[in-house]
Design brief:
It contains 10 helices and 7 strands. Helix 4 runs parallel beside helix 5 (131-137). The protein folds into 2 domains: 4-160, HUPs (Rossmann fold, 3-Layer(aba) Sandwich); 174-266, Alpha-Beta Plaits, CATH 3.30.70. It is of the alpha/beta class and 267 residues long.
């Protein structure tokens, strides 16, 4: 039986040419690598620069394309000026993705790519993801979902291919750290970005800093709860977070999980 990687290669071959929406994460890196292996220069990367994406993520995306010899195009995305996005309604992701992918499609057309593809996988169907609606409306291809690949399978294939992202922690844009209805501002985005960078520097891998007004709610893997309480670590986190603008610093006892801001939508 044909395995999913072969199915993906055949899918990309059938597209003929493609612009991959490339963030540098686990899924889009695997998709871009496969597309480039199959299509060569007929596969390009399009990366959106915005205040929702930390510089470290953009740097990693750029370094990967340079190493692999993949042509990369950056588009400047003024996301806070997309109508409705800064107000952070429940469909914020739809509004943002609709505008971003429309711009990516324009870049694809200008550069001779017949299709735009993005890296959502089969597991993404299990959460509230209004951005997928925008992708479907625009006719953007989702090859990983089309061939039935899960996150675990993508990581396994990525390891086989020697991709540096095979064990990279899952990431989502900084806007996902905000409670629905709380205004997203440059100041608060900077607070979250600095806070998460500090935790990364301290050795916490899979984590989130959710923002509730001026309160930080830290989500960590439960096995790292002890580390945050080590002598000096708790004090440094508290002091630095307060420097960044947080009044209160809390640890979520449920630990890290994707889409925790969507939990209120289910009640």
């Amino acid at each position: 039986m044909e395995d999913k990687l072969e199915k993906l290669k055949n899918y990309m071959q059938d597209l003929g040419s493609v612009a991959v929406a490339f963030s540098g994460g686990v899924d889009s890196t695997f998709l871009l690598k496969t597309a480039h292996d199959v299509l060569g220069d007929k596969a390009i990367a399009v990366t959106a620069r915005s205040c929702f994406v930390p510089v470290r993520e953009l740097d990693e995306a750029r370094e990967f394309c340079e190493k692999e010899g993949i042509r990369q195009i950056f588009v400047e995305a003024d996301v806070l000026h997309i109508e409705g996005v800064a107000q952070n309604p429940r469909n914020r992701c739809y509004l943002c993705k609709r505008a971003l992918f429309a711009e990516i499609e324009r870049e694809a057309e200008k550069n001779g790519a017949a299709y735009v593809a993005e890296g959502s996988n089969l597991d993404d169907l299990g959460d509230y993801r209004p951005g997928l609606q925008a992708i479907a409306e625009l006719g953007v291809k989702s090859p990983l979902r089309e061939v039935g690949l899960t996150k675990q399978e993508i990581r396994a294939y990525s390891k086989e291919l020697g991709l540096p992202t095979w064990e990279k922690p899952s990431y989502a844009c900084l806007a996902s750290r905000f409670v629905y209805g709380e205004e997203i501002t440059m100041e608060k985005l900077a607070m979250v970005d600095q806070a998460e960078q500090l935790l990364l520097d301290l050795g916490f891998r899979q984590m989130r800093v959710r923002i509730h007004g001026t309160m930080a709610r830290i989500e960590l893997l439960p096995e790292q709860f002890g580390k945050v309480m080590e002598q000096g670590v708790r004090e440094e986190i508290t002091a630095k977070f307060q420097e960044y603008g947080f009044t209160y610093v809390t640890l979520d006892l449920q630990g890290y999980r994707t889409g925790s801001m969507n939990e209120t939508l289910k009640k």
